[in-house]
Amino acid sequence: MAGRPAGHQALLDAASAEFAGRGYYATSIRDIAARAGVSLSALYHYYPGKQALLAALLHEGMDAYFALCDDALAQAGRDPAGRLAAVVGATVRYRAERSVASLILINEARALPENLAAAYRERERQATDLFRSAINAGIATGIFTTPYPDDARRTIIAACNAVAQWYRPDGPVPLEVLAERYVTLAYTLLGYRRRTPLARSSSAAAAAQH
Amino acid sequence: MAGRPAGHQALLDAASAEFAGRGYYATSIRDIAARAGVSLSALYHYYPGKQALLAALLHEGMDAYFALCDDALAQAGRDPAGRLAAVVGATVRYRAERSVASLILINEARALPENLAAAYRERERQATDLFRSAINAGIATGIFTTPYPDDARRTIIAACNAVAQWYRPDGPVPLEVLAERYVTLAYTLLGYRRRTPLARSSSAAAAAQH
DNA sequence: CGAGTACAGTTGAACGCTCGTTAAGCTACT
DNA sequence: AGTAGCTTAACGAGCGTTCAACTGTACTCG
Question: How far apart are CA B33 and CA B13, in angstroms?
Fold first, then answer.
């Protein structure tokens, strides 16, 4: 056979497709092994069981997501608006380009047993905090003017996550355009007002002004 | 035994809680029967099987949702902004007050077999159209000014749906306040500009003006 | 009016099947 | 000789579903 990927990766890919398409409990390990083109027992040669396969997918997905966010944030500097744009852009890109992984992260994590679920929820919290801290920073400096930062954050995150469900690479909107657009939507939700020398409103800025 | 609800309703309630909490495939009909306080065979006296229980929950949930929307729209008149507010308000209320049913509608519909799934997807499409037609009407009359009506619609729907996941009735924000707030967020996303006598843009109004 | 009957409501036991997992062993390369 | 990679076969458990049988109640009919 032509040098196809090692069973290891073939199994991850197959499990990914099956879990995303039908859900963890609706997928049998026989389905996964068949799609990966290996026997049932070969699966157990690489992974100790079905749960381990899910856990591996969830952690790999989270690793890739945080890597993308960290990259974007490293280029973003200190401006809260830029940092928020970096996180929104990275999230939209990830949801679109890795929609299968995203669907698993979003829908299948609840199949984790409690001992693994705690660690996963912590990573989810960290992801939420990427949004939260950029938003809070912008509120503090007065560039984000929404009276409802928590609801705006939830809305922004929900909008980004939904991209995984409807985006198709052959659709009418190129991904880079879409990412820009979602940054704009986020700014709109947050009541983004560019800082101008004459119109600062945060108390610290006002104090510095006079 | 004191007049407890008929087995019929007890089974629906039990199935609802189990499906929402653990997912359709992770729930056994023995779990459902036990929670409902009836025997396994009694379940089959009321429903022909597990799938029928899910289908009944999905249809009941959709019926209740559309009833709420229809009520709100009947009181809303013809103004697109009012109609959009009615749909957003009804959706937020439903997601908050019937979060268990909402979680099933949102997450478990994919467990339907293909013959039932088609009819369900059609009802989902009708629900989406409640938003779409209000938004399109507002765009047509010029009160909604967003350049991205499709993305705004998806964002609004995703935000409303997410309410089912986080809202708790004992939380800090009363439901009516929350519903108002989400209407405001939707208006913000749509670039809502109230019509003023000097800035009408619909042709009929413009004709009357001159 | 009372016997007969039908049927809704419920039960415990079982069926056949698929599930996740394990065991034992074979091949080929190092 | 050892081990990575993979095979066939099987295990026990749990699944959705079915079955035969037993209640009580309500309705029919001589």
Answer: 11
Q: Does A63 touch chain B (CB under 8 A)?
A: no
Count of residues making up chain A: 210
The structure's pTM equals: 0.90
Q: State both tokens at A32.
A: 């996964």
Using alpha carbons, select from B186, B160, B179, B167 the residue that is nearest to residue B105: B160
Binary contact (B158, A154; C-beta < 8 A): no
Tell me the pLDDT tens digit for each residue of A161-176: 999 999 999 999 999 9
Q: Is the pLDDT of residue B157 over 90?
A: yes
Cα–Cα distances in angstroms (integers) from residue A66 to residues A52, A90, A142, B46, B168, in the given order: 21, 9, 27, 49, 29
DSSP per position, A26-73: T--HHHHHHHHTS-HHHHHHH-S-HHHHHHHHHHHHHHHHHHHHHHHH
Nearest chain A residue (CA) to B153: A159
Protein side of the strand D interface (CB < 7 A): A 6-7, 38-42, 45; B 27-31, 40-41, 44, 48-51
